[in-house]
Design a protein that fits this description.
This protein is of the alpha/beta class. The chain is 19% helix and 27% strand. It has a single domain (4-119, 127-216), classed as Glutaconate Coenzyme A-transferase (3-Layer(aba) Sandwich), CATH 3.40.1080. The strands form 2 sheets. Strands 1, 2, 3, 4, 5, 9, 10, 11 and 12 form a 9-stranded mixed β-sheet that branches.
């Protein structure tokens, strides 16, 4: 089975539809599927539910789908400095399911592992626990959280082989590996596609069994969200 596609557009062909749920990897601006997101925008698909740690930054990442009003709901842990995100949420235009970051990661992992629900102490006794079942374990309250799954997961990796085995580099190994397991279909854009056998089996972060399509990324800007520098100290 050939998993390698020529372009980001063809890698998404036949997968997009209105009202679908998409998981999009990335942490801040690191590990964003930079080449696939513009193709989703170009498709015109609407009423999307998007699961992602954040919604990009001004002019970059998922911000593009917010700007085009294609996202109806975000499931996120961080709103950050995205003014467009803030405006759409406060105006009631955008639904938001705000989830603690560790809980978000575990909900995605649970979705990939086939675990419908689990208990966590994170958020117990706060607004996060509203309308959620609560149980007591060892004298402490824990809230029940449910899995997250998606119609499509889009991830960004460093290297892949034709079988779809993936390696991520540094901070890009954030939500990408767990999201790859939780999508009905997973599309990975990668910086480099190597020959079969060129990846050290001990260094593979996501096995190819979870990946349906791979494509060479066409955008690798790797922007820095907030650049802070200081003068070099004199020796």
């Amino acid at each position: 089975m050939n998993k390698v596609y020529d372009t980001p557009a063809t890698a998404l062909d036949g997968l997009l539809f209105d009202g679908m749920t998409i998981m999009s990897g990335g942490f801040g601006l690191s590990g964003n599927p930079e080449s696939l997101i513009p193709e989703i925008r170009e498709s015109g698909v609407r009423d999307l539910t998007v699961v992602s740690n954040n919604a990009g930054a001004d002019g970059f990442g998922l911000w593009m789908l917010l700007e085009s009003r294609q996202i109806a709901k975000m499931v996120s842990s961080y709103v950050g400095d995205n003014k467009l995100f803030e405006q759409q949420y406060l105006s009631g235009e955008l639904q938001l399911e705000l989830t603690p970051q560790g809980t978000l990661a575990e909900r995605i992992r649970a979705g990939g592992a086939g675990i419908p629900a689990f208990y966590t102490k994170t958020g117990a006794g706060t607004v996060v626990a509203k309308d959620k079942p609560v149980e007591v374990f060892d004298g402490e309250e824990y809230i029940r959280e449910t899995w997250l799954r998606a119609d499509l997961a889009i991830v960004k990796a460093w290297r892949a082989d034709p079988s779809g085995n993936l390696m991520f580099r540094k901070t890009a190994r954030n939500f990408n590996p767990v999201m790859a397991t939780a999508g009905k279909v997973t599309v990975a854009e990668v910086e480099e596609i190597v020959a079969p056998g060129d990846l050290d089996a001990d260094c593979i972060h996501t096995p190819g069994i979870y990946v349906d399509r791979i494509v060479r990324s066409t955008i690798n800007e790797k922007r820095i969200e907030k650049l802070t520098t200081r003068a070099r100290e004199h020796e």
